[in-house]
Amino acid sequence: MASCSSTVMSVLCSAGAVAVTMVAMKHLFAPNLSREEAHYLCQRYDSDSDFWFDAAGRSIRRGDYSRQHFDTIFKWKTRNRGKSRPQKNKTVTIKRALKLAVDSVDIPSMALKSLVRLEGVGVPVASAIMAAIFPERFTIIDFRALEALGAKSFSTSSINRYLEYVSYCVALSAEWSMSLRELDRALWKWSEKQDAGLLQPVRKR
User: How many CA atoms lie within 13 A of 95 on its CB side?
Assistant: First the structure.
């Protein structure tokens, strides 16, 4: 497995900062998998299924704010559920929201707000869009990741709560020597296997 990227480490620039974040959020998250299990599960995630998701994010980052890329990420995240709602957004509105999200990346709350103003886009979809564009700075929040982190009741509708979630995931990915995308894939895979009855949650490792 690749080691944690320098960009991730720059967000929490020292081992001390990582430790502080982990302690501060211990009451919110209790991972049901170990570092070793996370690396193992990440390797078994079908990364090919993310090809168009990743490609759309790279295109947006380069300045191509076309509706096609938005639709690709939305479909990937929702499995095309609720597809009629985002269709109500005008193409120019989507382009403006994507551009503002990219331009506001250093003010994450502003970037996310620009996206959740779109019809059919809540915090989980907005998190997927930001993770596709800036995978080294954002990660995806959804029920699977939260289940793996022992936080099923954690809110997915609040931008502030999402930013807390990102801070925790950045710290955890650094502690476990993974990128944010690798961590997200491991969490998703853990939840998938847990739902299939193939795993048992372990609170303490």
Answer: 8
Rounded CA gap, 101 and 203, in Å?
36
| pLDDT, tens digit (0-9, with 9 covering 90-100), for 149-183 | 999 999 999 999 999 999 999 999 999 999 999 99
Task: Give yes or no for a contact between 127 and 139, defined as CB atoms under 8 angstroms apart.
Answer: yes
Q: Is the Cα torsion angle 80, 86, 88, 89 positive or negative in sign?
A: negative
- How many residues are present in the chain? 205
- Answering whether pTM is above 0.85, one says yes
Distance CA 184, CA 189 (A): 9
- Residue 32 and residue 149 in contact, taking contact as beta carbons nearer than 8 Å: yes
DSSP H helices in 44-158: 51-61, 67-78, 91-103, 108-116, 123-133, 143-148
Note the pLDDT tens digit of each residue in 25-55: 878 999 999 999 999 999 999 999 999 999 9
